[in-house]
Amino acid sequence: MIVALELGLIYAIMALGVYLTFKILDFPDLTVDGSFTTGAATAAVLITQQVNPLLAMGAAFLVGTLAGLITGLLHAKGNINPLLAGILTMLALYSVNLRIMGNRANAPLLGQETVFTWFSQAGLRGTWGAVIILLICVLIIKFALDWFLSTDMGLALQSTGDNQEMIRSFGVSTDRMKIIGLMLSNGLVALCGSIIAQYQGSADISMGIGLILVGLASVIIGQAIFGTRTVIIATFAVVVGAVLYRLAIQYALTAGLNPNDMRLISAVLVVAALLLPQWKIFRRFSLRRKNKKVENLNKEAAEEAAAEAEEAGKVGHRA
């Protein structure tokens, strides 16, 4: 349970990055599969060079923004299809990641000081204290993202995803907005990769494969439950969706499913997350609950009216 919560909160940072491109910009960015590993590899190599883990995470974020910059330039300045631009960057990052890790497929962190060794030294690793600390960190990132999206630039970013023609008529460069959005998104994804590398004790060349589906599942599950009425609710839904996704994976394994079927389980969860909004199960449940509430209120009003009429009849009879 605690492990699933810890992983869910860490992966929520990645899901917030995916939310920026998938929901805000309406941009199918596959760079995520590569930039996640780039962040993990960068942090792992820097930590083995005795760099402070927090500085290594900052460097991972910057490297991730560079990956997003490349995808943004390919699309905005090279007029390359968004999907293809992301795939090209992802493929290029595979070789870049191998270079970062010294032409090795794995960069171990055994015996190195990481943020999670600090947790262990404080006796917090695997406890509710660690969950609370991770939750506070994720909420800080969430509220920072909420604030950014409420600024003039953030509003222009949202408008770029909603209606490019309209926002261009106000003199805003949609190309610049897309590049900024992709940089911020991949920066968050790389930051998540750097934390996961420290959590599992190594960076691996294949750790980012298929991760875009995990991010999409987190976004869709959360927003199917909580909706997208405001940015604050939408980002909160993304965080909760990431945690629910990890809990679902853990319960599937606890139920006795083979760990080798993890990819199959993930695919089923993603399909379920995509179908839930179409079935409108939560909306129907909410409407049914509202209708029941209205029926109860009408029933109470009718009973009160009947009681008042009966009382009035008694008074008239006495008179």
Tell me what the structure shows:
The protein is mainly α and 319 residues long. Helix content is 79%, strand content 2%. It is built from 13 helices and 2 strands. It has a two-stranded antiparallel ribbon. Helix 2 runs parallel beside helix 4, helix 3 (53-76) runs antiparallel to helix 4 and helix 6 (128-150) packs across helix 7 (152-162). The longest helix is centred in the last third of the chain and has 38 residues, at 281-318. It is globular, with a radius of gyration of 24 Å. The mean pLDDT is 85.
Provide a concise account of the structure shown.
The protein is an all-alpha fold. The chain is built from 13 helices and two strands. The protein is 79% helix and 2% strand.
The low-pLDDT segments are none
Q: How would a textbook summarize the main sheet? A: 2 strands, antiparallel
Rg, Cα atoms, Å: 24 Å
The chain-level mean pLDDT equals: 85
Helix content: over 70%
Cα separation of the termini: 71 Å
- Shape label: globular
**Order of the strands making up the biggest sheet:** 1-2
Structural class: mainly alpha
Organism: Citricoccus muralis
Keywords: Cell membrane, Coiled coil, Membrane, Transmembrane, Transmembrane helix
Main location: membrane
Protein name: ABC transporter permease
Protein topology:
Layout: H1 2-24, H2 32-48, H3 53-76, H4 82-100, E1 106-108, H5 115-121, H6 128-150, H7 152-162, H8 164-169, H9 174-200, E2 202-204, H10 211-226, H11 231-254, H12 262-279, H13 281-318
Antiparallel strand pairs: 1-2
Helix pairs in contact: 1-6, 1-9, 1-10, 1-11, 2-3, 2-4, 2-9, 3-4, 3-9, 6-7, 6-11, 7-9, 10-11, 10-12, 11-12
